[in-house]
Amino acid sequence: MQNQKGVRAEEIVLATQFLGISPKRSMTVIVMMECYRRYMHSCVRHSILLYRMSRRFSTGFFIFLRFFWRNDEMKQYQVGIIGATGMVGQRFATLLENHPWFHVAALAASPRSAGKTYQDAVGSRWAMQKPMPESMKDMVLFDATADVEKIAGMVDFVFCAVDMKKDEIRALEERYAKAECPVVSNNSAHRFTPDVPMVVPEVNPEHIEIIESQRKRLGTKRGFIAVKSNCSIQSYVPALSPLRKYGIKNVLACTYQAISGAGKTFERWPEILDNIVPYIGGEEEKSEKEPLKVWGKIENGQIVSADSPLITTQCLRVPVSDGHTAAVFVSFEQKPSKDEILKIWEDFKGVPQELDLPSAPKQFIHYFQEDDRPQAKLDRNIEGGMAVSVGRLREDTMIDYKFVCLSHNTLRGAAGGGVLLAELLAAKGYLD
Predict the structure, then answer these.
(1) Which homologous superfamily is 232-407 in?
(2) pLDDT for 242-294, tens place per residue?
(3) DSSP string, 231-280
(4) 193-227 confidence digits (pLDDT tens)
(5) How large is the C-alpha radius of gyration of the chain?
(6) With respect to CATH, is domain 77-230+416-427 assigned 3.40.50.720?
(7) Torsion of CA 37, 40, 42, 43, to 10 degrees
(8) Which residues are catalytic?
(9) C-alpha pair distances (Å), 78 with each of 105, 151, 152, 176, 422
């Protein structure tokens, strides 16, 4: 007998013998542990089983059992990456290489890449600092559009990061969902579909409850679409969210966005060196509207955006490889003190931290006291690129406060945020 993590029955026998349990009873333990694993997703059965085990064996052994089996409490999911050859798809590949819950079983891309190995399809376009995962190099790519049913039959859910027109993306993601394959999307096409949750897991995890309404619309039992928000809002929305209790009135945000957000590297975009581009198509609209959906609420089977605060933005492309920086100005109905804001940021935790999800940062918001921080080059990779860095909080002469914040745009802002969202969905049972 062998569990999903590769723990052999012989190892369990040795461990139980170490605790003074006879070999005969060790086999009983093995059977009980297998029952525990199989019933772990049912709260009632789980509780009953744990109670019976605690009555049957000593407290010391029960503690050992829970410690020994703690990493097997989550089902192992087979996943697909749709759009695997692009920059975000590549980032998904590196993040999922050794993920404790998710195993990559299928890769898909455009028809021109279908039928090639992942290594051959990407070729010299591999843009990650980490090398391509060895386990994926020889995987043969599927056609993302022609092989929907085939992929859906191989995986429990898919991550989607395709480069297509918005109406084509909407249609493709719904095809996967209607094939009973949940979609965790990095694309913007469905962000304002009323029954599609757009989630920053620490900020609005409750929005995943809309999935049941979406399933009714789609006529599915398992299939649904959930999306992550735009990368440009990942820095300032987390910083503003715990301050909403003071009544945020107005927000001005100027974002300075890395070239990886455009799927570029310096080698592929030399014109950006010694340059700033003061326009990113569609970015300001996203930056102004998406926070309001994130801060919205579920009503009558749809997510209704918040009607405040008033947000205005300027979005610039700057010669930085990774990391979106934002200069934020904010006014309040009830102005908090600087110390209150700093304490709120320090204490801010969300459901991912409470559940100890694998990709969740331990400290979500990091505040720097130094005047010259945060810096993209120094701070974008804090907590594996999943934390938000903030600095230079000070009172303003025109409105209440101003500060600077930073997030890694392809980790927290893109693939990493998608993986964290999938972990939340898995922990809440939506991927079963």
Answers:
(1) Dihydrodipicolinate Reductase; domain 2 (3.30.360.10)
(2) 999 999 999 999 999 999 999 999 999 999 999 999 999 999 999 999 999 99
(3) GGGTTHHHHHGGGGGG-EEEEEEEEEE-GGGGT--TTT-GGGTT--B---
(4) 999 999 999 999 999 999 999 999 999 999 999 99
(5) 23
(6) yes
(7) 150
(8) 231, 324
(9) 6, 11, 10, 15, 12
